[in-house]
Amino acid sequence: PSSVSGAFQEHLRHLGLQDFPCGRGTRHGLPPPVLSGRPQNSPGLRAGRAGPEEAVPPGGESPEALLELLRERSSPWALPPGCSPQERLLCEAAVLAPELLRGSRLCQALRSLRMVDKGVEEVDEGVLRFQQLEELILTANRISRVTSAHLPRTLKVLELCCNAVCDLQDLCARPPPELQHLGLGYNRLCGPSQEKLLTVDFWPNLISLDLSFNSLTDLLELASQLSTLQKLRILVLQGNPLALIPTYRGFLVDSLPRLSILDDIHIWPEERQQFHGLARQPELTRSGARVVVSIGEMKGLPDPEAFQQLEVGSEGPVITHSYCVTYEF
């Protein structure tokens, strides 16, 4: 299956970081530029430009000239219009500091890695090479399970939105201790076992949690477990069946007094006062919902008034029609 590290290497080949004007270009006689500051974000690497003491060898190009080839739209080596800011910064870093691309130095320098819609199915052990990684974005892939042993301990943001995650057991075996945001929206999580894995025992520093558009149904159990997350301030649960409960928002607002934002809506003091005491009435959090469907108009059926025009006692034929209407939710 396609892995994160494999997709990363393929993406580097696609960017052509070893090819002119990136990499060493035709500056084979130049000493490596001096790095200034520590690398920040990914792939935004900060590198010092070649100083005036670095003479350009005959037939070579200066770093400024090579950067111009990347930035000038009419250049045959210009970056594509859809190139992200991170990709642009990485290409420019390959010009200014090509030695960063050698061996594992690039992986060690990256702070953020975005692999969106790359067909990734596995978070493999190779991710551990990113020793300083703080943000891992894996949105819109095909990941069904995440092994926490393959995640760098430095991770603060893990985004898994729009995947096929159905179980958190492997992720919670040894999760990154400093994780602040966990994005699991648009996956296949369903209770009741999953709620027990969303506690402070696994996520002591979690500030933001996105569980939207899964199949969670047990509001009472989920609120009980989330209440242990002392640092949780942002919660997204919309799109789950439990959000259909009439007292859903009020119950969570009262159950999680430290929460600041629920389903992208700020919780104001007036709302918290309005729902005060609702958490002590669990009987109001019914696990069922009633849906009333009204049919306003149906086309393609015989008009009933036409049958009413038959005279009493007439021998006209009586035609009966039966219909079956099916609703899928």
Describe the protein's topology.
Blueprint: H1 4-15, H2 63-71, H3 85-96, H4 105-109, E1 112-114, E2 135-137, E3 157-159, E4 181-183, E5 208-210, H5 219-226, E6 234-236, H6 248-255, E7 261-262, E8 265-266, H7 269-274, H8 305-308
Parallel strand pairs: 1-2, 2-3, 3-4, 4-5, 5-6, 6-7
Antiparallel strand pairs: 7-8
Helix pairs in contact: 2-3
Region (Disordered): 18-62
Protein name: LRC43 protein
Keywords: Leucine-rich repeat, Repeat
Largest sheet, in brief, is:
8 strands, mixed
In whole angstroms, the N-to-C terminal distance is: 33 Å
**How would you state the average pLDDT, rounded?**
82
User: Into which percent range does the helicity of residues fall?
Assistant: 10-25%
Please, how many helices?
A: 8
> What value does the Rg take, in angstroms?
29 Å
Shape: extended
Beta strand %: 5-15%
Region (Disordered): 18-62
Protein name: LRC43 protein
Keywords: Leucine-rich repeat, Repeat
InterPro entries: Leu-rich_rpt, LRR_dom_sf
Description:
The model is unreliable at 28-58 (pLDDT under 50). The chain has 329 residues and is α/β, with parallel strands linked by helices. It has an 8-stranded mixed β-sheet, with helices on one face. The chain has helices spanning 4-15, 63-71, 85-96, 105-109, 219-226, 248-255, 269-274, 305-308, and strands at residues 112-114, 135-137, 157-159, 181-183, 208-210, 234-236, 261-262, 265-266. The relative contact order is 0.08. 19% of the residues lie in helices and 7% in strands. InterPro entries: Leu-rich_rpt (IPR001611), LRR_dom_sf (IPR032675). Residues 18-62 are annotated as: Disordered. Keywords: Leucine-rich repeat, Repeat.
